[in-house]
Amino acid sequence: MNDILEKIFSPSTPEVSIIPVMSIDAGHDLGEVGNPNILPILTLRNAILFPGTVIPITIGREKSVKLINTVNGGDKLLGAVIQNDVKTEDPKAEDICNIGTLGKIIKIIEMPDKTITAIVQGVKRFKIAQVVTTEPYIMAEVNYLSEDNPAKNDDMDIICSSIKDSALQIIKLSNLPQEASFAIKNIEGYNFLVNFIASTIEVDNVMDKVAILEENNLRERAMKLLNLLNKQIDLLKIKDDIQKKVRSEIDQQQREYYLNNQLKTIQEELGMNSDEDDINDLKKRAANKNWPDYAAKAFDKEIAKLEKINTNSPDYNVQYSYVEFLVDLPWNEYTEDNLDMKNAQKILDEDHYGLDKVKERIIEYLAVLKLKGDMKSPILCLYGPPGVGKTSLGKSIAKALGREYGRISLGGLHDESEIRGHRRTYIGAMPGRIINTIKRTGSSNPVIVLDEIEKVSDDFKGDPASALLEVLDPEQNTTFHDNYLDIDYDLSKVLFITTANNISTIHPALRDRMEMIEVSGYLAEEKVEIAKGYLIPKQTEAHGLKPENLNLSTKAIETIIDQYTRESGVRSLDKQIAKIARMVAKNIALEDPVKEVIDEADVKEYLGLPTNFHDIQKGNEAPGVVTGLAWTQVGGEVLFVECSICDGKGSLTTTGNLGDVMKESTIIAREYLKAHPQLIGVDTKLFFKKDLHIHVPEGAVPKDGPSAGITMVCAMASAIKGKAIKSGIAMTGEITLRGRVLPVGGIKEKILAAKRAGVDTIVLCKENEKDIKEIKEIYVKGLTFHYVETIADVLKFVFEK
Prior knowledge:
Elements: H1 2-5, E1 38-44, E2 54-59, H2 62-72, E3 77-83, E4 96-110, E5 116-133, E6 139-144, H3 154-173, H4 178-185, H5 190-200, H6 207-213, H7 218-270, H8 275-287, H9 293-308, H10 314-328, H11 341-351, H12 356-372, E7 379-383, H13 390-401, E8 405-409, H14 417-420, H15 433-441, E9 447-451, H16 464-471, E10 480-481, E11 488-489, E12 495-500, H17 508-512, E13 515-518, H18 524-542, H19 554-564, H20 571-589, H21 603-607, E14 625-632, E15 635-647, E16 652-655, H22 660-675, H23 686-689, E17 690-695, H24 709-721, E18 729-731, E19 734-735, E20 741-742, H25 747-756, E21 761-765, H26 769-773, E22 784-788, H27 791-799
Parallel strand pairs: 1-3, 7-12, 7-13, 8-9, 9-12, 14-18, 16-17, 18-21, 21-22
Antiparallel strand pairs: 1-6, 2-5, 3-4, 4-5, 5-6, 10-11, 14-15, 15-17, 19-20
Helix pairs in contact: 3-4, 3-5, 3-7, 5-7, 6-7, 8-10, 9-10, 11-12, 11-13, 18-19, 18-20, 22-24, 24-27
């Protein structure tokens, strides 16, 4: 029984082994044991001797050795007391607990390592009254504590039964033999059961055992023991759960290891590449790379790291992907530029109509490249309304130069790591779009279009526009740093072309790094040519038609442009032509008759009723009505400004959904006329007796900008004089309080709107004359331009006979 019980519990340290034996009250004969008042005190580090139990004590201290030798030669009695701190090497009187147990040495054993082990059995409890001496070891006067030996009762039976159940549960959780359970069940006697299990239970704080030892009431001592047992059970359950999880993980790893070995064997039998073959393949490819020294060193370092990683580890795939990406990048691999400028001009003209400024800049770049042989690529920004061919122009430029082409859409981009990549410490890290595009094109000098650069936004993840500063700066992008790649890459040979609709929202520092080239909207005449030369052939091929099946007359194209589209580009025009092509394809498939030429009158049959109606200049026959010119993102528009006058207190009202800048223009216009009434032949007092109301039709459409300034002045002057301005006039220009007329933008689009509305004379600032001269003469044919410098010039011109 004793051999079994000694395995039930493990001690808190390896210094002391606990060997439970029969208790005194169970019949073990200790002989006559007296109650000496003065006892030699043996201090224990982390074990407590309970009455009736036997424990082996390893003796190591010099004082303890002297004590054991002395006691063993006498009555063999000693006091076993635990010290307060296990780290104390030479405990004094104040370092020991005042509760202990009288013990009797049963046997002394000399161990092979020359240490002494004393087998001591507990007899009865005592409390130290006072320490008599500390040399050569501690001697103390003690008072013995009475033992509580209650008669057999139901209450103690229940408590002891619970203690046994808890002890049995600990045995089960500890995976001990079933014989141990049998031994526990057969222990008799309340005192021995409590002392035996209290002596053997493992606790984190040994003072918990001291609390049990000093308790005189056996019932209370049993309850404290039961609480300790329950805590021990909870700990064992947690340990058991952890062991199960660890065992499960180890089993899974062993299973994966076994299956991977089988897979490796199968792959070798089938002649498939193993992991070693993949690494050797990377090394062969790296040997043929013409990369810079720092990239080669980085590869050697990373491939060495890869070889050390277990192929079954998740880190292996991450590391392999990175090394493979290093090898896949086109280090110092460049395509040869086609420096034939005539051929480049021919390709650009074939793909796009107009856009002379952009084409000229590309030819200039080719010319310098041809003379110098090597130069940093320019950073071009093409800005203009949607649908004018900015994005597709990048592809044509790549074709003309004989380079690879890549496109990155920046619309809605709000994460800086999309540009610079993620650091490899993150799970699922990827390189940035710039480096990824370089890899995809397979060349270090491609043409990369960064589409819609003004639509980049920032949030808590960073500012992508700031990351683009390094990409688009020729002085910095020679050492572009991608977070995933983690080494520098040269982007100086890449020709970056950015596109934008509205440059006002582009980061100023970013805009400063780019060469801005405006791609303005197309005039109606240009759209006709684009439709004939590009769009109709494109849709003919896309719908499987023959050239003779889709034949639109010039008048038909003009009707589509004027009545079915409202844009500066040709995107909607392309859609309308595609719709006609589908109708023609359907008629051919159904073997219905197909018209040889689709004329102006046939357009309604294919496209339905017109969807776009342009304002026609009414001749300004009524006083207070003046035609202005406005620029929108879909092209130019005419703007009718109406002014009425009535009796009042000199107030000014504006309606028509006007913006702040436009409202300020109306105030400037009125204040100027109030300060210079002689220009319109009235007295200043009139402005304090009359109310003015400015209205711009189409009130649901927001309007803003300073270019309607002279239109506001003329409308007010016309209403006050009660006289209409000359017919056939439209105007645009900003005004100041000093009466100056300032230049405005969007002149080309505004001219298109004026011609469409039937205007024949346009009034604009003298400084805008340079813009008119840049427009081809064929597009301004039939228009008269009157240039002004002051408001007085405007009023004089519009009211003269």
